[in-house]
Amino acid sequence: MNAISLAMTDSSTMLRRNLLRMRRYPSMTLLLIGLPVLFLLLFVYVFGGTLGAGLSTGIAAGADSRAEYLTYVTPAILLMAAASAAQGTAISIAMDRTEGIFARFRTMAISPSSVLTGHVLGAVIQSLLAMGVLLGVSVLLGFRPDPNPLGWLALLCLLTFTAFALTWLCVAFGLVSKSVETASNLPMFLVILPFLSSGFVPVESMPAGLAWFAEHQPFTPIIETVRGLFTGNADGGTALVAVGWCALIALVSYLWARKLYRRDPAG
Amino acid sequence: MTAPRPPAIETTGLRKAFGDHTVLDGIDLTVAAGTIFALLGPNGAGKTTTVNILSTLISADAGTARVAGHDIDRDGSAVRAAIGVTGQFSAVDGLLTGAENLRLMADLHHLGRAEGRRQSAALLERFDLTDVARKPAMTYSGGMKRKLDLAMTLMGSPTVIFLDEPTSGLDPRSRRDLWDLVRGLVADGVTIMLTTQYLDEADRLADRIAVLDSGRIVAEGTPAELKRRVPGGTIVLYLNDRAGLEATARAFPEGARDDDALTLSLSAGGDIPSIRSVLDRLERSAVTASHLEVTSPGLDDVFLALTGPDARKVAL
Lengths: 267, 316
What we know:
The complex is a heterodimer of chains A (267) and B (316).
Chain A: H1 3-24, H2 26-55, H3 63-98, H4 101-106, H5 114-140, H6 149-176, H7 180-185, H8 188-192, H9 208-216, H10 219-231, H11 236-263
Helix pairs in contact in A: 1-5, 2-3, 2-5, 3-5, 3-6, 3-10, 5-6, 6-10, 6-11, 10-11
Chain B: E1 9-18, E2 21-31, E3 36-40, H1 47-54, E4 62-67, E5 70-71, H2 76-82, E6 83-86, H3 98-108, H4 113-126, H5 142-154, E7 160-164, H6 172-187, E8 191-196, H7 199-205, E9 208-213, E10 216-221, H8 223-229, E11 233-239, H9 242-251, E12 256-258, E13 263-268, H10 272-284, E14 289-295, H11 299-306
Parallel strand pairs in B: 3-8, 3-9, 6-7, 7-8
Antiparallel strand pairs in B: 1-2, 1-4, 4-5, 9-10, 11-13, 11-14, 12-13
Helix pairs in contact in B: 3-4, 3-5
């Protein structure tokens, strides 16, 4: 077997393992899907009436402003779902590490990259699942996205790429953590970061320093692009920045994770 | 007789340091194919580091090693294809069932569907896990997890197997079960290197033992050879009362006293002159011991004599 077909075979074996684990531990998957849905309901029904009225002048707080806010906030909650799924990856990586499973894999004649690849593929699938469910709930609440087929494809690509980048970052977090607890806490900021972006309120409404941060952190261009794609008027420049951030995060995290995995002695 | 097989494991001058801390300080070992070799030593002696290096998990700072005929540095993947490793903690996926864990190993060995199923079933049967094969491994007892762990290691028929403290944390019955399984493996012709801090385990299982202390091999040989190398055993004096113990302790300052049992243990040969000399000193100090007991040297004595800060210098 040559190196590439070995990597494919072993990666798909590892992916099968991770998918099986998700089925065996459904409470984790349900939590990853359930929590963002809860956030969506909270933000739309509790805060949405007032926040929506603040988005643009001329809407009174009420049903109209709530519908407006649903459209506004859905992209942010989608990203939160991706971040929280990635957080789950950090935990399962740390579990494999502390339980000696990685050590076992590393003493076997398998493709070295397959172990992490299997985790990443599984997590991206889980993440897309969580985002799909969330989008479905959002549509049930009255969200009416309006992209053309190409827009949908671009949306799928961007969300997959974002999930991919966040997952690699969390793989590195899982490997660098000494314990499962640390691995679960370290990626917490990824769930917080969307709040400090244009995801929940317009950046202009924030104080100057915070607005600067929100303007320049990676979640803002990603959320803006997703929002633009939903309404069919995405800005090409912003999209490029979004893709650039994802590529940067994915590349740096991948190299970091690979280094950590190779030198990891204890397992 | 068949032609002698080349050694399964051969190391020369293996060294490893983590920062300033030297963990292995020149390890030379030869393990004959088809035998059980025990690395015996206290915690921190370097046992696990040795196994980690030989199983290609980490690389040595200096020295060379061949495992199953392959150089660990130059031909790591050939080494990995020939070995099986059971680490210190049961590395089983608790969310998967026993059968699924084995099938995972079969898939990673590229055995193919039918062969994977066949070997899984055979291993479950051999390790007495068939009844629980469809239950998640996290519901298993410690002994069952260990057995599954070992079964996973055997998938793909490795020729050299490393067992790092295979019975730590097991109850006596599970330990015995595991010992039987390990003996059975060697009967099939595989080579086993195991680490242990239990002397009885090394004594019962190993063909040869290397005693490791602070990163050096301080003794090596068959269990019988090691026992022979340490002079003498212990003479235990049983006293009638505390006053007698005090007096005896003054007369034998080198002895180890046990105030509860009212005994004083002396490291001394079990031969007649040694016993006579102890009795003479006892008589001169005018204390009466109720009786004495002579124990012949066991591996315990070897271990204590050779390892730790109080290691007696034994000419070997």
